[in-house]
Give the backbone structure.
Amino acid sequence: MEHAERVLAAAGELFYRRGVRAVGMDEVRAASGVSLKRLYQCYPSKEALVVAYLERRDERWMAALTGYVAARPDRVQAVFDWLERWFGEDGFRGCGFVNAYGELGADSAAVRDVVRRHKERLRGYLRSLAAEAGAADPELLAGQLLVLVEGATVTAMTGPPEAATAAARAAGLAAAALTGAGPGRAAPCPG
Amino acid sequence: MEHAERVLAAAGELFYRRGVRAVGMDEVRAASGVSLKRLYQCYPSKEALVVAYLERRDERWMAALTGYVAARPDRVQAVFDWLERWFGEDGFRGCGFVNAYGELGADSAAVRDVVRRHKERLRGYLRSLAAEAGAADPELLAGQLLVLVEGATVTAMTGPPEAATAAARAAGLAAAALTGAGPGRAAPCPG
DNA sequence: TAGCCTAGAGAACGACCGTTCTCAACCGCA
DNA sequence: TGCGGTTGAGAACGGTCGTTCTCTAGGCTA
């Protein structure tokens, strides 16, 4: 529906930039241009809107990542190249799922579940990249890559802008070492 | 002062467990047993109380980490051993600084600054461990260890309990590979 | 034109927020 | 016993929250 999409676009922008609790439904109404009545017809509660926001973000974020990575030869490295670009975008404010979980995870089971689904989806994707790279233990490497992705994102969020690039690169170098060295990078065991 | 400490203890527990915005000043009053008037004498605003909470958390968290690590032979590995213990504690809910930043960082410069100070302190400590371990580039290794610590913490928070242990171990193994293999761990380049 | 349904604008509602104020009870001291 | 100063309990204040309700205007069918 036309209206639901406009609501979701406005809510997504506001929730990500300022946090869920900091944004009221009336602000979503004003930003979307949809009346409050219709807004509640599309999403019967704020929690439902937050869940829809996260589900939409999951789809778009994963699509952007996988789309970028698919076209690159060294796919594990491409993940961290993509992160570096993301960190540099205007309005970058870390992982929307982690932020939502920190705000609401203790209160809302629905939010907790959608965050976990997203993280499991990301882990599964990294597992496929690990297997493709010929890892001896793709499950372990996927877990390590997930830790690197999360850690780089948090570090990029909390630090000053120049730290964001450094975090992505440090994580990329670590990933290269763990996967057995990407092309053009220093091998972990020279000689 | 006696009262300020009781307020801070109650606020710290509540803010960490449920999030800053989810806890009202009246709840802090009730949990601390300090009257609202005195509470505002000790901390003239909620923001001041939040900053004090984070500063106290910085001191205690860093002291717990460094105290544990100092007594161990392999200090880099000890960081991740300590993380694993922390993740298993009752009421573990990720990094209080990251959560506070996600909730308030966009609104409160004071919160943003205290979070950054804490993360810089942690980075500096990891740099000293990296240098002690004989890293070729301690600054880079410190950045990588910071990414691993942050990533393990986020992964432990968002995932189910059993994932927390796995995240700490995966990060520890990654750290061992990056530092050139800790004792008793598999070397990254067998043979 | 008349009647009916829908939808939008925004007022209203009860709850709760951070913060301040009131007021009675209590303190050490004469 | 009387008294100024301090305290604690909690009411009060203005504001905002999520949600619901009212009321009006406008577009359909006849």
Notes: Residues 46-70 of chain B form the longest helix (25 residues). Chain B touches chain A through 48 residues (CB under 8 Å). Confidence is low (pLDDT under 50) at residues 182-191 of chain B. The CA atoms of residues 12 and 151 of chain B lie 23 Å apart.
